[in-house]
Amino acid sequence: MQFKAIIGHENVKKRLIKSVNDERISHAQLFLGPEGGGNLPMAIAYAQYISCQHKMPTDSCGECPSCVKFQKLIHPDLHFVFPVATSAEVKEKPVSANYIEHWREANLDEPYLSLAKWQSKIETGNKQLLISKNESESILKILSLKTYESEYKTMIIWYPERFNIASGNKLLKIIEEPPSKTLFILVAQDAEQIISTILSRTQLVKVGRIKEEDLQSELIKKYDIDTSAAHKIAHQSDGNFIQAQKLIEHSELEEEFHELFKDWMRAAFKGNVPALIVWSEEIAKVSYGREKQKQFLKYALHLFRESLIKNYGDVEMERVNNSEEGFLAKFAPYIHGANCIEIIELFDNASYHIERNANPKILFLDVSLKLTKLLRVEAPVGAE
Ligand SMILES: [Zn+2]
User: Fold this and answer.
1) CATH code of the domain made up of 3-208
2) Do residues 263 and 281 lie in contact, with contact meaning Cβ atoms separated by under 8 Å?
3) What are phi and psi of 29, to 5 degrees?
4) Which CATH number fits domain 245-375: 3.30.70, 1.25.40, 1.20.120, 2.70.50?
5) If you measure from the C-alpha of residue 48 to the centroid of ligand 1, how many angstroms do you get, rounded to a whole number?
6) In angstroms, what is the span from residue 94 Cα to ligand 1's centroid?
7) Dist. CA 59 → ligand 1 center (Å)
8) How many angstroms is it from 52 CA to the middle of ligand 1?
């Protein structure tokens, strides 16, 4: 991880680089800031910079043997401690070392890692992730080794909030009398949850929220969205890149579903069977995946529900966005008391069968043909 891959925080980067070049590397530091602000990638970039063999004024070189290993998170002098729990894979006394392969994968995949993502990555269910006292023993063991290739041995501890008191106290002793050339970087979100004695022995490096304009330009660069959309998302996500990613994925998917739904309804209205066959083949493609097919059915149900609300209900209850609004104005009159129950049943059944591995091509075509009939049912007299 190089500094340039981290969004914003230019002042923090400058200060960290200066401290290395001035040879003022404090042996225990606390990188404090909210999840999604970048404190974890910042810690890794800093450790990479310290170990880089060809340091540049604003970043590590990215090419020396040390950087190459750091970029794969396999440098022998780089160690990680993070919260874990038991799982089908690790049945007792879980420690970070048990999950290091998953850790590398998760971080290389998403340097702005969230605890929730991490939990689903290691499939520990709802168990609380912790740094246990078994972990402090393994920390001691690691620290007793001499460095292999670098001047410094670096230990990055993610979520020190998750230390229990016993393991925290052990860590404290180590921090108080650290082996020489050892660097601890605690990467935390919430200073109040860290044992105060640990807190008082670390040097604070604040990696706060990402500035709105920095986040905005990153979103434009990375997702190729227009300025106003990027501005809106940057604002809504409050300087949190993880949150921004979630918002983007959600809105992209909704847009895709909306287009798919419109095409479908157009063909169904016309009773255009060849078009319905093509449409069903499209959504049945393996690349689409059952999970997404299910989500699409859910989305379709949402639009049917909104149509009913539009026809009979209270405008205040509507939960639609602008592009849906325009479409629903024309579509809603076709969903009414004489067909809505059958339509909802049709979609519920379809979800049920998709989950049980029905052939999606046959299933979606079947739903399409039934829908063609249902949409032609006339509204009961008296309804709008
Ligand atoms: Zn390098």
Assistant:
1) 3.40.50.300
2) no
3) -130, 150
4) 1.20.120
5) 7
6) 33
7) 9
8) 4
